[in-house]
Amino acid sequence: MTRPFHHAEVSRRALLAGMAGSAAFLAMPSSVLAQVAPANPTFRHGVASGDPDATSIVLWTRVTAEGPVEGTWELSATPDFAKVLKTGPFKTDADRDHTVKVLAEGLAPGGMYYYRFRMGDAVSPLGRARTLPDGRLDRLGIALASCSNYAFGYFNAYDAIARDADVDFVLHTGDYIYEYGGKDGWGADIAQKIGRVQAPLHEIVSLTDYRTRHAQYKTDAGAQAMHANHSLLACWDDHESANNPWTGGAQNHQPDTEGDWATRRAASIRAYFEWMPVREPEWLKARGRTRMQFWRGYSFGDLATLHTIETRHTARAKQIEYVDYAETITDAASAERFKKEVLGAPNRPILSAECEADLSAALSRSVEQGQPWRIIGCPMVIGRVEVPDVVKLGVVPDPSARLAAAKSREELAKLSADPAVAIAWKGKYNLPDYTDAWGGYPWARERLYDLSRKAGAGDLVFLSGDSHSFWANRLADDAGRSAGIEFGTAGISSPGDFVDSGFGDTTARALDKVYAEHIPEVTWTDNMHQGYVRVEFTREQGVATFVAVDTVLTPDYRTMVLRRVPFARQGKEVAFT
Predict the structure, then answer these.
(1) DSSP per residue over 267-285, as a string?
(2) pTM for the predicted model, two decimal places
(3) How far apart are CA 439 and CA 423, in angstroms?
(4) Coiled-coil stretches, from where to where (predicted)?
């Protein structure tokens, strides 16, 4: 079995030592990985690479300075820079928040490169970048990451990804930052205890706010290590702007106090493109695109295609809220009508027509070229997670008497905010767990599955984020035909929803168990841990390894493998084995 990349195979330990400026960075045993942030006052936010194709890649850094500055970037095949292969100037200023982003071109396919930035006597940390391979490829390793919330803890899983020798690229499916703030904001109590209070302290709304929050996240040592070691493939989800956005607003945007939604969204997107190693629209082969049309296609030789999708700002219909329909759902028949006529109403899209067209073309091209794997970078879980009757299964108490005793709509709404009441009610009627995920858009999900079948690619592998839980899901369309499989990742630091909702460990674990045993598409799930998923592909089979960290409350941590899930191609389908 050949490794996919051959240029300058220097160990990750050497790179990390160079990045930190000291071999002591790796003095601890591999099971205890304490983060040590390198001190570099000029380039204090580290370096990053990403959005590669076969012959070019984006290189990124940020200069701590005032006023316009100039410098150079360098790229080499070896970390000692004995021979500089590419170099060029850069300029930056306050208009771009002193971020630097260059497109290094004319590179070899499947190349491993090292890069750095210079400004005067100051030299940035060392970074390592990969271009996409071309031709025959026998193995690909992707780390799936999502949901890094600074307030909830250290990004230890990023650090673990940096040190994972079986990772070739990192796919980040969104919630790279969170917009929350304030002394009573989500996670504020933990942030105070561990010294990770968000900056600015308030919820971020303006361009300056979003820039400040991105800057803070890039000071985390685990984030710096991951970005320095692995090239990033990225898409966004909701918290890069505000919780649960759609084309006309967001759940966490109040126009009366926070201004125009379009202005806030534009600020969040501008800051994202400044602070992330992603291509500007003018660097894309497809002309006429905007920053908002943020989806990408990547081809890994003859082995795989990976396509990310944009699900928030270019097409999404407004979410359905259960509270608006709860009084009309009184029995199984009315619940089915709600699922079919309200949630399943036609023309409630998630993907734009342009994204669908690009995805369809990429899948068709992959099938025609005979690639065995077609991977979707998906911001949200797409599997059917319809809550089982957790009351009958003995996991949570029956709330019927409490609901019946409610004397007003306000009292009923307060009761429905109780997580135990909400999950019991959804379980009674077998409703989707969250209407903001694909479960709230069944028409759009079926449209995506139909698009895939028409392209000859009913064998997709979805790599998904958002849920703060690990998932291994088998997917099917409305007719029961296989639509592929899905691996979902827990948060880098964001807590699992059952745990965060106040369920004790025993109940949270029981909910995981009944979800896997009683939801047809769910094979396994875990909401108890933070971490990432390493997904490895070979010619006919693959394996997903669910890697957890034992804590995010301190930078000293251990990793553990929770589960390995093998999968394989079976004719024109893909399935767990």
Answers:
(1) HHHHHHHHHS----GGGSS
(2) 0.94
(3) 15
(4) none
